[in-house]
Each structure stands twice: as C-alpha cells, then as structure tokens.
Amino acid sequence: MPQTTDSAAARPSTHWEYLLPITAVHLLACIALLPGFFSWSGLALALGGVIVFGTLGINLCYHRALSHRSLKLSSRVERVLATFALCSLEDTPARWVANHRLHHVHSDDTLDPHSPRDGVGWSHAGWLFRRAPGRHTYAFFDKYARDILADDYYRWLERNPFAILWIYAAHAIGFAAAGCAVGFLTGGSWQEATRLGASWLVWGAFVRTVLVWHITWSVNSLTHLFGYRSYATGEDSRNNWLVGLVAMGEGWHNNHHHDPSSASVQHRWWEVDGTYYVILLLERLGWATQVIRPRHLRRAAVPLADRAG
Ligand SMILES: [Zn+2]
Ligand SMILES: [Zn+2]
User: Fold this and answer.
1) Which ligand is nearest to the CA of 260?
2) CA distances from 186 to 3, 193, 196, 198, 204 (A)
3) Distance between Cα 257 and ligand 2 center (Å)
4) Residue 219 Cα, ligand 1 centroid: separation in angstroms?
5) pTM for the full model?
6) What is the pLDDT of residues 3-62, one digit of tens each?
7) Going by C-beta distance under 8 Å and a sequence separation of 6 or more, which residues neighbour residue 59?
8) SS3 letters for 44-80?
C-alpha cells in the first residue's frame, strides 16, 4: 500500500481531477495510430514540442528556475516558459514546485510523494491519481511554495483551478487552427485543411503531451531505481543515461540530488545536460541571470584561504 501524506483520519480517495484529463489525453493520443492522422509535420511538431514544452517549460522553468532557484529568468521569459509548462498539463507552478521540494526534503522516506519504494507504478504516475489532502492545504503551500504564491500570475492560477485546463484547451485549438491554415494554403482545399488540422492537433498537442508526461514521470520513477551513483546522497537517486538523454539532462538525478541548487547536472564531460546549454544561451541573451554553477566549479572559484574545512 503506498504511503501518502494524508492524516489517518482522511481516507485517500481517487483524484479524479487528475485521473480524468490524463486518461482522456492518453486516449486522444491513441488516435495517432490511425494512418489518416499522420503527417511528417505533425511528427516534427510532437518531437519539437517535447523540447519547447518539456525542456523549456518543465525542466528549465518549473524545475531549475522555480523549484530550485538555480537561475533567475527575466519576468517576461519566466511567464512565457511557465505558460509552456501549463500547456504540458503537469499541474500549476505552486503545486509542482511544492511537491518537488517535498520530494527533495523527504526523498525515499515515507513522506516522499513519489518514491519507487512504494511501487514502480506509484512513483511513475500512480501518486497523481490518489488524492492527498495534506498536500492541498494552506499550510503545505505556505511551507513549500510561499515564494511562488507571491507572484500575481501563479496566485491567480491557484484561485482559478480550471484555468490550466482552459489554457491547455486553447493551445490545443491553436495547433488545430494552425494546421488548418497551413493545410489550406499548401493543399488548396478544405479537405486538406481539415486533414492537417486534425494531424497537428493529435500529434502536436496530444502525442507530445503524453511524451512529455512520461519523460517527466521517468525522472521520478526510473532515476530512483536504475543507474549508477556518483555520490552517497542518503536516498536512492541514480544517474540514468537513457533518462539523461531523453529528458535533456534531468536523468543525471544523483548529481542533482547531490547539488540541487546548481543550474547544471553535468559533472562529467559525457553527462550531457541539454537543459543547461539552453540556460547558458538564455544567459548570453541576457534573459537569465544569477545562474548557479555546479558545486565543484563554485569551489574552484573560491580562493583556497576562504574555503571552509
Ligand atoms: Zn529524486
Ligand atoms: Zn529537483
């Protein structure tokens, strides 16, 4: 039986608000198996969208910028990237950040929201489908996401719980409309417009959402199960090359648990961290500042006489 943060008095129940949309988008993504919905441009949108909505939205903004404050984004860029993350339908910034910070404080102990010690399926997605009243209280958000709720946009999202669904629906309609427009302009018929609009909707929105979900969820499940450990971090985190590659660096999870405040998880030359390279680009453009380097580089920058120990 999985552990939750619920009090003994509050019986865990199904979290329908998550189970229904997640199931619905998985079913809608299955439409991609029908040959009439395939297009090469739709496939390109799905794969490119993993970078835009997953790497930029979830990895860079939700995880490294908001959860760990390992860099500071300009406010406009942060808003845009947070909205990309909302279009990944992975919860609001305050909830995502609070749960992630709880994971770091209680990694693989009984209060960890998604430890594989409670089951592989539980850590991958099952924890999302079980209501956890203890993680929906004012005290919980005040403890783990007070800084996030100080922001007007993020506070508005909490006060309007259906806003994330409307934002997701609007972006999906955007993919369909763009596909229709391009289909009409290139194919010259309403039939081609409808065909490409449907393809972009299914591949660009639904298939891509499912891909980003399972990539993020693999960081919670696989990187606490399989891989090598470079550091004795006191929990089960591991560096997993497959997740590291697919999740643009997030799979070097043992490195991350060792030094969570760093904007980079690359500790060896071959532990490629695509998300960090994007951060460096944003820094060059002046859109990201206060980028925290890995601990070994921070130590190297401190004069020997000033180092503790
Ligand atoms: Zn972890
Ligand atoms: Zn983290």
Assistant:
1) 2
2) 54, 9, 10, 15, 18
3) 7
4) 7
5) 0.91
6) 444 444 456 799 999 999 999 999 999 999 999 999 999 999 999 999 999 999 999 999
7) 247, 248, 249, 250, 275
8) HHHHHHHHHHHHHHHHHHHHHHHHCCCCEECHHHHHH
